[in-house]
Amino acid sequence: MAEPFTTLTAIAAPLLRDNVDTDAIIPSREMKSTGKTGLAGGLFAGWRYLDAARLPNPDFVLNQPEFSGARILASGVNFGCGSSREHAVWALAEYGVRCIIAQSFAPIFHGNCIRNGIVPVALDREAIAALAGHEVQVDLPEQTVRCGDARWTFAIEAEAKAMLLEGLDAIDLTLKHRDAIAAFHARDRAQRPWVYLEHPHA
Amino acid sequence: MTTLFDRLWDAHVVAPLDGGAALIAIDRVLLHERTGAAALNALREAGREVQDPARVFAIMDHIVDTLPGRTDRTLMPGGQAFITETRTAAEAAGIILFDVGHPDQGIMHVVSPELGIVLPGLTLIAPDSHTCTQGALGALAWGIGSSEAEHAMATGTLRLTRPKSMRVTFAGQLAPGVTAKDMMLALIAAHGAGGGAGHVVEFAGAAVTALDMEARMTLCNMATEFSAFAGLIAPDEVTFEWLKGRRYAPEGTGWDAALAQWRTLRSDADAAFDAEIAIDASTIAPMVSWGTSPQASVAVTGAVPADASPAMLDYMALRAGALLIGTPIDAAFIGSCTNARLSDLRRAAALLKGRKVAPGLRAICVPGSSAVRRAAEAEGLDRVFLDAGFEWRESGCSMCFFAGGESFAEGSRVISSTNRNFESRQGLRVKTHIASPETVAASALAGAIADARDWAHG
Q: CB-based contact (8 Å) between A30 and chain B?
């Protein structure tokens, strides 16, 4: 269950490139345990460190004092493309990121954000160029981003918004539909019996 | 008016949710050992049960190594725990596991179609982005994160906002030597790695229906590289013929009933899509990537674009305007859920037969499944690869991305039949060029990026 999100005021760290992939966010070699924690150190490891001893790369945005510990990232198109690894979102959340403002998001990454309390905000290139590096206020109930005198609105699906606002547990919500699910299966089993398998098969 | 996607969606709506979302029934869940234990353990710790374990399958592919004579041990630090914990959790949950050493082990997106786990008209999910591969059989199949896998196992459903629909029509006929891999790289190069963002993409047109089943899987495999929600191909006689008799496919009168329903799974002639792309298949050439996104791809006979991103050029150590052919390579890899099925290995072997890879070049072939490996060995393909200087491996995801804890040498240049050329995916600072298996095989022989058409046996 994720921490509820309403508003957040923080500096948007500029990671202004397109197609930031989940291998870049958390490389395979940094996913060292079967759990969901211990990942923040590996966040952006390939860009963040110069060597295996983790000497910080001074050119990487999160190593610059004003952006270290950033809670908001600003980026380009198709953020979070590639592998479905939820570790990318777990690593971002563990580092402290609560919002990503990008031109667009890859669909699996977008879903993973919603399940982990990170708000994916899609804005156009001009807006992102204007706010990157500055303090912004993200207001989820109003669906707005403010930076200085500028104000933009963003779209988010009603379902995703509700989950983020209340930090709801999706499984608990869905289990309230238990009767509808059982009715579907009874109906479907008659219509598509080949969908339903019996043990043992292996 | 109705699209194939509409039909799949409508058949799986359990209940509408607020704000236009819906609760969608999930017919199959696949797990692998990188996240299988995490998902199953999280469910157990929350006191939840797998609702229908008979429709969940676990497969070892993401961590297991592919060295001959392998065990649970892997070169990846801590890797063994992923394998043993997934095994324990799958057993406790009553889930069928295709374990290390099991004859049906392999890459999940190769194994599932081989066994008929995926069928036309099903919804199938897995915590792996290349789950879209299985849309080639007319299923709605897509990748999800671990939390969604937990949700699907606990409830038999997912909460979804309906994706938009797109049709990509490949009209006409492919030129000789051009493959499904080249079709996808051409599409992504023309329309961008985000070009299909959030859409369910139906692939259609004469060049698609002319593809055999394995090539259709290659096509749908890279829908995720197009940022699509899923890829789809309407099932037809090719699909039905291919599926008949597979272990989890229906039999007898059950098969006839299923077939009658599967024949309705197509888009109407007047179906309306939210977006359409048309490509003349005859204009597509064999493709190779030059940069660190699949969209950075050109015809193998072409050059690095003049307006190439400086960051990509710097990473790839290439110049704008440089020809791709002749670029020296250090290694060649044939494997992955994209291009390691029997037909892929046959086409590569046809080029390699009686020849040797360039001196000093590391070349590796990893069959897509243990069944593919056995079939290839039965027709002597292992000898062709070994005699040419390739390593011949056990099945798994392998060096597509550090599976088994293995990478190519730091900074080396690799030509690869895989799907992603991201920075450091195949090893620290490794420069990956993705291409078809025949382009990989020809390049391995040349020791440099090569046009496979120049290497065909006369």
A: no
- In this structure, what DSSP letter does residue B19 have? G
Interatomic CA distance for residues B199 and B223, integer angstroms:
10
Amino acid at the residue A4: P
Position A202 scores a pLDDT of 46
pTM for this entry = 0.97
Q: Is residue A93 part of a domain?
A: yes
Q: Is residue A200 part of a domain?
A: no
Mean pLDDT score of chain B: 97
Domain match, B37 and B107 both: yes
In CATH, what number is assigned to the domain containing residue B208? Answer: 3.40.1060.10
Name, in order, each residue with C-beta under 8 angstroms of B263's C-beta and a sequence gap of 6 or more.
none
Helix (H, G, I), strand (E, B) or coil at B87: helix
Residues 6 or more apart in contact with residue B62 via CB below 8 angstroms: B32, B33, B34, B82, B128, B396, B397, B403
Distances (CA, A) of B156 to A194, B26, B138, B149: 16, 6, 20, 10
First to last CA, chain B: 49
State how far the Cα of B132 lies from the Cα of A7, in Å rounded to an integer. 36
Q: Are B2 and B167 in contact (CB under 8 A)?
A: no
Residue A22 DSSP symbol = H
Q: Which residue of B has its CA nearest to A108?
A: B144
Residue ranges for chain A with pLDDT beneath 50? 201-202
SS3 B212: coil
- Within this chain, do residues B132 and B19 fall inside the same structural domain, yes or no? yes
Both structure tokens of B6:
């509409």
Q: Give the residue from A174, A178, A189, A198 with the most B CB atoms within 10 Å of its CB, the best one to mutate.
A: A174
Contact A23, B424 (CB under 8 A): yes
The length of chain B is 458
Distance (Å) of CA A60 to CA A33, A51, B357: 26, 13, 40
Q: Which two tokens stand for residue A45?
A: 């490891």
Q: Inform me whether the pLDDT recorded for B264 exceeds 90.
A: yes
DSSP letter, residue B407: -
Give the CATH number, domain containing residue B333: 3.30.499.10
B positions 118-157 inside 8 Å of A (CB): 119, 121-122, 127-129, 131, 142-148, 150-151, 154-157
pLDDT digits (tens, 9 = 90+) for B320-359: 999 999 999 999 999 999 999 999 999 999 999 999 999 9
**Around Cβ B310, how many Cβ atoms within 10 Å?**
8
**How many whole angstroms from its chain centre is CA B136?**
11
Pair of tokens at residue A150: 């500028």
Q: Do both B147 and B182 map to the same domain?
A: no
Q: What is the mean pLDDT of residues B219-238?
A: 98
**Structural domains of chain B, count:** 3
For residues B36 and B117, membership in a common domain is answered with: yes
**Interface subset of A 37-66, CB within 8 angstroms of B:** 46
End residue of a domain, out of B161, B180, B202: B161
CA distance A7 to A119: 10
What is B291-351 written as a DSSP string?
SSSTTSEEETTSB--TT--HHHHHHHT--TT-BSTT-B-SEEEE-TTTS-SHHHHHHHHHH
Chain A contact probe: residue of B8, B10, B14, B162 with most A CBs at under 10 A: B14
Preceding omega of B367 cis (within 30 degrees of 0):
no
Structure tokens at B99: 């374990």
